[in-house]
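Listing S7. Sequence submitted for prediction.
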Amino acid sequence: MIKITNLNKYYNKGRSNEIHVINGTSLQLPDKGLVSFLGPSGSGKTTLLSVIGGLDSATGTIEYDGLVLKNYSVYKSDKFRKENIGYIFQNYNLLPNETVYNNLVIALELIGVIDKEEVNKIIEEAKRYSIEIEIKESIN
């Protein structure tokens, strides 16, 4: 389970061109499944995912099954992300001549999941437990 409480993210904080891109956001994601964030360009989807995954910093609390990754070293954050969080970036690192399924298979192989039955089970389970969260003009 991922729980986010009062998350705030700024760009250029304290400057005249300050942008408050994540504004006091709180949400709880399910224990398993696929979550889709939908919204217009610039609404904060990628920023939110970068913060959740530890690729970017913000204020507030992010818990992963009760583990709070606040004030961890870069090494610990990287290790946690490598072992627990998977990304498929919207514009990068996808093989354009492959299907979504095949891109997922390749990603699973990179973390050591190579048994075809296990791969299919993981992908099917993600589809079965999928939910969508629509993000409006800004995350609130």
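Caption to Listing S7: primary sequence and predicted structure tokens for the chain studied. Helices lie at 45-52, 74-84, 100-110, 116-128. The chain has a mean pLDDT of 80.
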